[in-house]
Amino acid sequence: MDAKRIAAEKATAYIDHEMVVGLGTGSTAYWAIQKIGENVKRGLRIQAVATSIQSENLAKALGIPMLSMSMVDSIDLTIDGADEVDEAWNLIKGGGGALLREKIVASTSKNLFIVVDERKLVKKLGAFPLPVEIVTFAHEITQNKLRALGCIPVLRMKEQHPYLTDNGNYIVDCDFGSIDHPEELHQIINMIPGVVDNGLFIKMAAKVIVGYQDGTVIEM
Ligand code: DER
């Protein structure tokens, strides 16, 4: 079985009746949502919130009872993927363009379980360019301010147009190279006017579940 899938399905075993569950975004979270849909059909009584329109549509198609974020003040467990996980469990997320809603849902969750395959584990963050969500207004100026921090900012495109997030913003993929102090970088980036948030998730993960190509799965 696919390494991402075994990690995602392992995380769903922690979901109990009456929980409010946060549904992540991406190809790993996809398998968690599929498994949750199966379990709901078998009688699991939960309600869920989604971190993207894509995940919401998938969950609805599977019959998972959905809540809007305005209807919850706390989430019991969120299961989500990541682009990189370092040894302190700091994350780079946003490869799927959903970082803002993912971070809002994660920050509202009692527990955030990150599900990845082994390739996502790194000693230091940064091989994956850091996604930064910015408003469209004066985006060139915002990109210049990101560049001044020492990265190469690339506006994410979809076909010939800039990619638009579910929130109507742009994503700039910022190659900082190896990131020595992710916590400080996170704060510096978010001080730039025009930046909405960035893909550094600092000390938010309660558990990291790793799937391996040989079929094993490890909970860290
Ligand atoms: O966009 C995100 O943060 C996703 O969780 C993503 O980074 C992980 O994507 P994957 O599970 O498809 O590798």
Automatic annotation (TrEMBL):
SUPFAM superfamilies: D-ribose-5-phosphate isomerase (RpiA), lid domain, NagB/RpiA/CoA transferase-like. It catalyses: aldehydo-D-ribose 5-phosphate = D-ribulose 5-phosphate. Belongs to the ribose 5-phosphate isomerase family. Catalyzes the reversible conversion of ribose-5-phosphate to ribulose 5-phosphate. GO terms for molecular function: ribose-5-phosphate isomerase activity. It comes from Paenibacillus hexagrammi. This is Ribose-5-phosphate isomerase A. The active site is at 102 (proton acceptor). Pfam families: Rib_5-P_isom_A (PF06026). Signal peptide: none annotated. Pathway: Carbohydrate degradation; pentose phosphate pathway; D-ribose 5-phosphate from D-ribulose 5-phosphate (non-oxidative stage): step 1/1. It comes from the Bacteria. The lineage of its organism: Bacteria, Bacillati, Bacillota, Bacilli, Bacillales. Substrate binds at residues 25-28, 80-83, 93-96, 120. Keywords: Isomerase.
